């Protein structure tokens, strides 16, 4: 006998104000979630997925959105069925937390920047459960440990801006789980997470579902995660439901053309195992033709023995410890080559990229770009050097000034480097917007008027504005849905083919890494533990840590769901060490043509 619905949405329509009247962004949507069931809501950016979640929680009331029609019926702990559309504000406030909780897509925007992490989690516990503050703080620590935050006790005292994007996302998950909700709405909860942490979070959500009977409305563009977790799938496009079915039906026999195109754009790890060259996504009418853009000669970038560390001091300014973010890293990038840098959150990937462009100051080592010393005294004053390397940041909203229009942000590097003058600047901005797949009238918009995927494309356009020779893409496609991600990857590869661009591609998406890279470098606790040709590293990984990463990649096929015991999601040691405790850097040994692996001491851990 089937259980009564926990959530039943009937004919929901939501609109937002527009230049002329209102625009409907969700139209006649119906779906249900049963206790202990996971329903995945999938579709492209702008399809109405997140707006639906805001309507269910009635957080839509605090913005310009309005529910025009329909019902949102929710069955509470007492068995009472409530229409959330008609509940008053006070009643909804009591429901949020112990009944309905939400994990938001943008953790930096959702966390209070002036409150410590521990305080924010404890506040959520005290607000909805009758326990004291000290007990709530103890439970906050347990929650951080449960979502695999390393050195959790120390992280409790930190502010959101002091931790990585992946850690912030896990803090949001901890806050949502704090009140043990009956319905959990997760809006892209694993987007910023690396594959092993993602596997742990999916396990956590499964435990919550199985142990407490929690219903889960899971909003995502990652079809691999959908295949791993979902019971049913609802596909949205343009605010409407276009297809619904069991996860097996959707993946095995999709009916709607849009669902078919969505699944066709999903990168599958192993699809390029037989070719050593990267290849763009096969988006009709384009074909996935492998491309060899690597030019012979001197490397465009050389990094030698690079060390970047961060001091941790107490309230009196005394040195307590050091974070060893980058330790003795060596790598080269050839003209026209893409080197992918992979590893778990906190391994030092982003710090390495930021050190190369001097957003972080290395302790020692050498960085040479196009024959010039990046760390030299005159490097800061060399405009050609600053123009030659451009960075695409992980969080597109934080990377754009909210007070400036999109057009102004893109035009700024053009004017700074005097690449165009007068009306030619406007023409170049329009050209760059079209290049990244955005309409030219977006130049007049502000960042808050764009979706996350659109903001990320603006960030790529701004990076291209200075006509660089090397782009450092730090999780540049992580926030994009599958079809836009495929378009952006193809765009980067087309620009590489046309302009001879080199790229340091920092990512946790191993399937995209296989698609885009010539070589792969694997980082662990600030060190390169394996580096070599992409085909060799991904098809024949030699280091235990590389094999661990690859084993955790979700497979976009529900028939091949992984057994929990097959995933090694054990805790990674903290990079924090005592001031006089320097790590041992394992030497790299060649195991194949251009393929190097760290050789650790016998009995030592990787």
Fold blueprint:
Layout (H helix, E strand, L loop, with lengths): L6 E11 L4 E12 L4 E5 L6 H9 L8 E10 L5 E3 L5 H7 L4 E4 L3 H4 L6 H12 L4 H14 L5 H4 L9 H13 L5 E5 L7 H18 L2 E6 L2 H7 L2 E6 L2 E7 H6 L4 H8 L36 E13 L5 E15 L4 E5 L6 H8 L7 E6 L2 E2 L9 H6 E4 L3 H4 L6 H11 L6 H13 L16 H14 L4 E5 L7 H18 L2 E5 L3 H7 L2 E6 L2 E7 H6 L4 H8 L24 E2 L10 E5 L2 E4 L8
Helix pairs in contact: 4-5, 4-7, 5-7, 15-16, 15-17, 16-17
Number of domains: 2
Terminal CA distance: 50 Å
**Count of helices?**
21
Show unreliable segments.
none
Supply the CATH superfamily name of the largest domain.
P-loop containing nucleotide triphosphate hydrolases
**Number of DSSP strand runs:** 23
How is the CATH topology of the largest domain named? Answer: Rossmann fold
CATH architecture assignment name of the largest domain: 3-Layer(aba) Sandwich
Would you mind describing this structure in some detail?
By secondary structure, this protein is an alpha/beta fold. It has 2 domains: 191 residues, P-loop containing nucleotide triphosphate hydrolases (Rossmann fold, 3-Layer(aba) Sandwich); 266 residues, Rossmann fold, CATH 3.40.50.300. It has 21 helices and 23 strands. An 8-stranded mixed beta sheet has the order 16-17-18-13-19-20-23-22, sandwiched between helices. A 6-stranded mixed beta sheet has the order 6-7-8-3-9-10, sandwiched between helices. A 5-stranded antiparallel beta sheet has the order 15-14-11-12-21, covered by helices on one side. Helix 15 runs parallel beside helix 17. The relative contact order is 0.11. The model has no long low-confidence stretch (mean pLDDT 87).
């Amino acid at each position: 006998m089937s259980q009564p619905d926990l959530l039943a949405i009937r004919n929901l329509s939501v609109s937002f104000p527009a230049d002329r009247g209102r625009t409907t962004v969700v139209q006649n949507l119906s779906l249900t979630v049963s206790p202990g069931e996971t329903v995945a809501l999938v579709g492209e950016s702008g399809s109405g997925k997140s707006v639906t979640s805001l309507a269910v929680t009635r957080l839509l009331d605090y913005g310009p959105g309005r529910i025009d029609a329909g019902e949102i019926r929710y069955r509470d702990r007492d068995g009472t069925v409530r229409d959330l559309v008609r509940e008053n504000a006070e009643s909804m406030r009591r429901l949020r937390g112990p009944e309905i909780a939400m994990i938001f897509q943008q953790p930096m925007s959702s966390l209070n920047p002036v409150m410590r992490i521990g305080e924010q989690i404890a506040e959520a516990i005290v607000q909805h459960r009758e326990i004291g503050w000290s007990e709530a703080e103890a439970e906050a620590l347990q929650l951080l440990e449960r979502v695999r935050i390393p050195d959790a006790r120390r992280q409790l005292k930190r502010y959101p801006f002091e931790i990585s994007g992946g850690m912030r996302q896990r803090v949001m998950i901890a806050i949502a789980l704090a009140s043990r909700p009956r319905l959990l709405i997760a809006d892209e909860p694993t987007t910023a997470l690396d594959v092993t942490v993602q596997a742990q979070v999916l396990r956590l959500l499964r435990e919550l579902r199985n142990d407490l009977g929690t219903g889960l409305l899971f909003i995502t563009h990652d079809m691999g995660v959908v295949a791993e977790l979902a019971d049913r799938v609802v596909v949205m496009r343009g605010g409407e439901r276009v297809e619904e079915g069991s996860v097996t039906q959707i993946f095995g026999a999709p009916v709607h053309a849009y669902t078919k195109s969505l699944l066709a754009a999903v990168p599958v790890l192993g699809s390029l195992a037989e070719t050593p060259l990267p290849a763009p996504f096969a988006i009709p009418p384009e074909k996935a033709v492998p491309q060899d853009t690597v030019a012979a000669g001197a490397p465009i970038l050389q990094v030698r023995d690079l060390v970047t560390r961060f001091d941790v001091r107490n309230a009196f300014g005394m040195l307590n410890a050091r974070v060893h973010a980058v330790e003795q890293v060596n790598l080269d990038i050839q003209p026209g080559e893409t080197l992918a840098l992979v590893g778990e959150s906190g391994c030092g990937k982003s710090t390495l990229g930021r050190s190369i462009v001097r957003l972080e100051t290395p302790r020692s080592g050498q960085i040479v770009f196009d024959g010039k010393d990046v760390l030299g005294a005159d490097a800061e004053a060399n405009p050609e050097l600053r123009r030659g390397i451009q960075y695409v940041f992980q969080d597109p909203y934080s990377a754009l000034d909210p007070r400036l229009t999109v057009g102004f942000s893109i035009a700024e590097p053009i004017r700074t480097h005097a690449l165009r003058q007068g009306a030619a600047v406007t023409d170049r901005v329009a050209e760059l917007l079209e290049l990244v797949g955005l309409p030219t009238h977006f130049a007049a918009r502000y960042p808050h008027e764009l979706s996350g995927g659109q903001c990320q494309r603006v960030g790529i356009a701004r990076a291209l504005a200075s006509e660089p020779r090397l782009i450092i893409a730090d999780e540049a496609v992580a926030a994009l849905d599958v079809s836009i991600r495929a378009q952006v990857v193809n765009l980067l590869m087309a620009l590489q083919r046309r302009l001879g661009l080199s790229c340091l591609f920092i990512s946790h998406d191993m399937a995209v890494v296989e698609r885009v890279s010539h070589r792969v470098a694997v980082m662990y606790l600030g060190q390169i533990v394996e580096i070599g040709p992409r085909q060799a590293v991904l098809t024949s990984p030699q280091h235990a840590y590389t094999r661990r990463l690859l084993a955790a990649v979700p497979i976009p096929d529900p028939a091949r769901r992984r057994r929990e015991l097959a995933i090694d999601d054990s805790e990674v040691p903290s990079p924090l060490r005592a001031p006089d405790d320097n790590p041992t850097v394992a030497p790299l040994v060649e195991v194949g043509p251009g393929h190097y692996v760290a050789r650790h001491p016998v009995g030592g851990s990787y």
